[in-house]
Design brief:
Layout (H helix, E strand, L loop, with lengths): L3 E6 L2 E3 L10 H12 L3 E6 L6 H7 L15 E4 L12 E4 L3 H8 L7 E4 L7 H14 L5 E3 L2 H5 L1 H7 L4 E2 L5 H12 L29 E3 L2 E2 L10 H4 L4 E2 L2 H15 L3 E4 L12 H10 L5 E8 L6 H9 L2 E9 L3 H7 L5 H14 L6 E7 L6 H14 L2 E6 L9 H7 L25 H12 L10
């Protein structure tokens, strides 16, 4: 007998938040899998920028971009005591809690609730969602998964209020929980190593599909010291590029989607086997799309051929992981890119048609032991190359190679309090790279002249 399962994407509680093509893709993939096992799926998105009840109340919609990203509803709330040292407003991003209660009331026959989680320091929104679910649906089992649940598993078990906490990939674990709780037969149990065996994510449950996030790979062949990719997925797995195009065509023809985002850590790796055949197949089928890569792509893969294909195929938002221009730090953090590779990549990208403003290059700031001169020299180097520096504030992630250094460097109890992982806090700042030094770097970037990008 199939069950009624409610998926919940909780609020973000933070000093700042912006919807850079955010979708709880893992949760929606589970929704697709549960449907394939004959369960009935519902969805509440606490971050919904198109919530009719919120629109009635606020009378203005958060400003959205035609590409599918934009602002979220926000409300200033009380700051957690441990973050009072930061003189900024702390906000709940998303719908009001009473509207969440109203939406919960639409699903009185729910048999199980799945709640996802993102950043480790966003857990207050997760806890609030679970608390309200427990209040309104007493006795209904709540399962928590996602990034926070996986990286801070003990903290989640002890404090979240969830009945079950799932660490890592959840496909098999969720089916087993259903089997154990309700004696539900597992009808469809796909091979976890075959990404194309999974049903499409249940994006049709989203109120308005303004874009679709795509996955072509999971895992990563690199082991950067600050990154958690290998914690969630030990193996580097990739899809068949033709199957990826099948999915893009499905969302475009069935729902009119034009904008697609890639958050893959290794989208461009071994480009002749993935991204090039994928884009050639799109061209063959005459599918016109806009693509966005807010995650850091690998610069090492960029050459003349790939640059032209990316530009001609409609890659509008491209960001690259560079992290630092300091050779020793490059080596210590993973060695995935060198300075001359950035120089060559920018030349190729500009010849293909990209402008300076289009080529965003992430620079890590606030890592353990970092000096101000490293950040300023890295900014200058990116500018000399003709690209746009984008500061990415370091957030310590449990289980990464850099975690031990962060524990030693941070004056905060990052071991036991995930709120101290907040990137706005710069929790590993030091006398040489202080918050003031960081502010100077941010101010420098704001004064840079902007090169006008040609509309395309």
């Amino acid at each position: 007998m199939s069950k009624n399962i409610l998926l919940i994407n909780p609020w973000i509680y933070d000093f700042a938040a912006y919807d850079f093509w955010l979708k709880p893709l893992g949760l929606l993939y589970l929704g697709g899998l549960l449907r394939a096992n004959s369960h009935r799926i519902s969805y509440i998105n606490c971050l919904d920028p198109y919530s009719p009840l919120m629109l009635q109340r606020s009378r203005t919609m958060p400003r959205r971009h035609v590409y599918g990203h934009g602002r979220l509803f926000r409300q200033v709330i009380n700051k957690p005591d441990c973050l009072h040292m930061l003189p900024r407003s702390y906000c709940r991003y998303g719908i009001d809690p009473d509207i969440f209660r109203t939406e919960l009331g639409l699903y009185p026959d729910t048999d199980m609730v799945l709640v996802t989680s993102m950043m480790t320091y966003w857990y207050p929104g997760v806890f609030e969602a679970i608390r309200i679910v427990k209040e309104m649906m007493p006795g209904i089992p709540v399962v928590l998964g996602g990034k926070y649940a996986s990286l801070c598993y003990d903290h989640a078990v002890a404090n979240s209020g969830a009945d079950y906490v799932v660490r890592g990939r959840g496909e098999k674990q969720i089916l087993e929980i259903l089997q154990n709780l309700f004696d539900e037969d597992i009808i469809f149990d796909p091979d976890e190593d075959d990404l194309d065996a999974l049903p499409y994510p249940a994006l049709d449950l989203v109120r308005r599909i303004d874009h679709v996030p795509m996955i072509t790979t999971i895992g990563c062949p690199y082991r950067c010291s600050y990154c958690s990719s290998h914690i969630f997925q030990k193996k580097f797995l990739r899809r068949d590029p033709v199957k990826v195009v099948d999915e893009i065509e499905h969302w475009q023809k069935s729902f009119g989607v034009i904008d697609f985002s890639f958050y893959d850590d290794a989208l461009l790796v071994d480009s002749e086997k993935m991204i090039i055949p994928l884009l050639n197949e799109l061209k063959r089928r005459k599918l016109s799309c806009r693509f966005h890569c807010p995650n850091g792509l690998h610069l090492r893969e960029i050459n003349s051929k790939l640059s032209k294909i990316l530009y001609d195929s409609g890659f509008k938002t491209i960001r690259f992981g560079f992290e630092t221009a300091d050779f020793q730090l490059q080596k210590e953090t993973g060695g995935k890119v060198q300075n001359e590779e950035l120089q060559k990549a920018v030349i190729h990208l500009k010849k293909a048609g990209y402008k300076t403003e289009d080529i965003g290059v992430y620079l890590l700031c606030g890592i353990p032991g970092q000096k101000e001169v490293d950040v300023t020299q890295s900014i200058d180097f990116v500018l000399q190359c003709g690209a746009k520096p984008v500061l990415a504030e370091y957030s310590p992630i449990p289980g990464t190679k850099m975690w031990a250094d962060a524990l030693a460097a941070s004056p905060f109890d990052i071991q036991h309090e995930p709120l101290y992982h907040n990137n706005s806090l710069l929790c590993c700042r030091n006398d040489d790279f202080s918050y003031d030094a960081y502010s100077r770097s941010k101010a420098k970037l704001k004064t840079l002249p902007k090169e006008t990008s040609v509309a395309r």
